[in-house]
Amino acid sequence: MQVVVEIMTGTIFNVQVGNNATVQDLKIAIHNQENVPGDRLILLLDIGDDHLMMNDDQKTLSEYGVQDGSRLYAFFKPLEVGAESETEDERDNNNNDDDSSSSSPETPREDTTVESPEYIDISD
């Protein structure tokens, strides 16, 4: 089956998937074809004057009513605030590899409390 996908940037393209493909299969096909983050995709099926969110990756496209030539809209889940690309162990290992004289100060993480400096009143 071939479906038409429109990404929020306005890009429109066709994706070919099997007749028994799941939502996850379609997301993988979109990722492979368009090089977009498939794990962040949100798919909406255009059904006339309404849209159906296809939020169960294990359901088949036909269970959602997707047919050959159906139009889908693809959006992206926002990145999580504070999401880091490396783990704390990786960060520690990377910092140990650097020369300590050239290392920059670490940015506090969310779980780190930063205290305000104390100000001394010098007015007499």
What would you note in describing this structure?
- With 124 residues, the chain is an alpha+beta fold.
- It has a domain at 2-76: Roll (Ubiquitin-like (UB roll)), CATH 3.10.20.90.
- The protein is 18% helix and 23% strand.
- A hairpin with a 2-residue loop joins strand 3 (41-47) and strand 4 (50-53).
- The chain has helices at 23-34, 88-97; strands at 2-7, 12-16, 41-47, 50-53, 71-76.
- The model has no long low-confidence stretch (mean pLDDT 78).
- Strands 2-1-5-3-4 form a five-stranded mixed sheet, covered by helices on one side.
- The termini are far apart.
- The protein is globular.
Secondary-structure element series: EEHEEEH
Low-pLDDT ranges: none
In CATH, what is the homologous superfamily of the domain at 2-76?
A: Phosphatidylinositol 3-kinase Catalytic Subunit, Chain A, domain 1
Q: Widest sheet: strand order?
A: 2-1-5-3-4
The residue fraction in helices comes out at 10-25%
Share in β-strands = 15-25%
Task: Indicate the mean pLDDT.
Answer: 78
Q: Give the N-terminus to C-terminus distance in angstroms.
A: 83 Å
| CATH topology (fold) name of the domain at 2-76 | Ubiquitin-like (UB roll)
Rg, rounded, reads 24 Å
- General shape: globular
Instruction: Label the CATH architecture of the domain at 2-76.
Output: Roll
Classified by CATH, the class of the domain at 2-76 is Alpha Beta
Sketch the major β-sheet: 5 strands, mixed
Q: Give the count of helical stretches.
A: 2
Class by SSE composition = alpha+beta
How many strand elements?
A: 5
InterPro entries: Ubiquitin-like_dom (IPR000626), Ubiquitin-like_domsf (IPR029071)
GO molecular function: polyubiquitin modification-dependent protein binding; proteasome binding; ubiquitin binding
GO biological process, one term: proteasome-mediated ubiquitin-dependent protein catabolic process
Pfam family, one: ubiquitin
